[in-house]
Amino acid sequence: MIIPKSILKEIKYFCELNEIEDIDKFVIDILKIGFNVEKYGNAPWTKEVEKIVEKEIIKEVPVEKIVEVEKEVIKEIEKKVFITDDEKVKELTWELDHLREMITTKEQEIISNAHNMKSLNNKIEDKKNEVDTLKEKLESVNKKLEEKKEVPPPPDIYGEEGGYWGSNLRDKK
Prior knowledge:
Mean pLDDT: 78
Shape: elongated
């Protein structure tokens, strides 16, 4: 098949723009598509198949030297037509809309829950910081108590008033 140079030039330019490397395959694919459109028409779901059945019926009638030939041509046209149920289409459309609304609602719930989780995580983090601060204060207070801790003098074996070591005499003032 010979393709005119002007058309071939346009095809090559189109292939370059669309980064199509195999030009021959592209041309064959486009040729198939065009042929199918010509053969079946633009609507892909209605298909009209035309069958031509030719039958040649020869009848001989016994008459003097007269032979009559009759030809009968029968055309059979087969059409495939898709029939839709409008009630079913309406029902499915309603169901589709309902499911889309449910998806939107669930997405909003997810966003709300994520926001609440973020808020709770922030509160938890704040409480952890409070606990850490309180721990530091407690450690500081414990250190101060350790530093201030005084060792009390040993108790006097003679009572509160005191006495001499090894003596049972008491100092009285």
